[in-house]
TrEMBL record:
PANTHER family given in the database record: COBQ_COBB_MIND_PARA NUCLEOTIDE BINDING DOMAIN-CONTAINING PROTEIN, P-LOOP CONTAINING NUCLEOSIDE TRIPHOSPHATE HYDROLASE
Protein name: Cobyrinic acid a,c-diamide synthase
Pfam family, one: CbiA
InterPro entries: CobQ/CobB/MinD/ParA_Nub-bd_dom (IPR002586), DNA_Partitioning_ATPase (IPR050678), P-loop_NTPase (IPR027417)
Organism, scientific name: Cupriavidus metallidurans (strain ATCC 43123 / DSM 2839 / NBRC 102507 / CH34) (Ralstonia metallidurans)
SUPFAM superfamilies named among the record's database cross-references: P-loop containing nucleoside triphosphate hydrolases (SSF52540)
Domain spans labelled CobQ/CobB/MinD/ParA nucleotide binding: 4-182
Amino acid sequence: MPVVVIANPKGGVGKTTLATNLAGYFARHGHAVMLGDTDRQQSSRAWLNLRPESAPPISTWDIDADNIARPPKGTTHVVLDTPAGLHGWRYSDVMKLAHRVVVPLQPSMFDILATQDFLAKLAGDKRVRHGEVPVGVIGMRVDVRTRAAEQLQRFVEGLGLPVLGYLRDTQNYVQLAAHGLTLWDVAPSRVARDWEQWQPILRWLDGKGGVVTEGPAAVG
């Protein structure tokens, strides 16, 4: 089963926003998706508790008597939300599971500096270098017309990694999250601009690497 890891050791960059909306996308397409939360704050699990029964289902970790987390039976897609400060053995364990890694990054110089060592580590990872685990960066809360967006693009490409797209700063994510919902759970006309921004990201996920996005309820 494909596992998409959302990772950045810096907090407050939008990891949970990405993770929940990606899980919502897979669920909207009829997949049996699990949203795993490896962060102690358990933000994704708290969000799932808000999700209405009428929305496409998203599962979370099953915990057995030995406290070993595992995907629920029948899971076809996994999205992992990771904690700030991801490093050491936890980084190694997450990378062993990953089929693709998505790094959310805000365009400020402070965020770039705080993330550069992590991105360099990813770029140098053996599985990444050999093309086994593709890595992509998503600019968060970005106006693509600004110099900040251009600066982020140059920095990431200098590491040999692709910028998959940019997501704007909008209350849509905030308001939907407050109800356990995603962009894919509401009328397209309400979030048309945001759907458009997600298209290059979804095309990358649907490429080589086994992350299948087609399904019986595919969005046109």
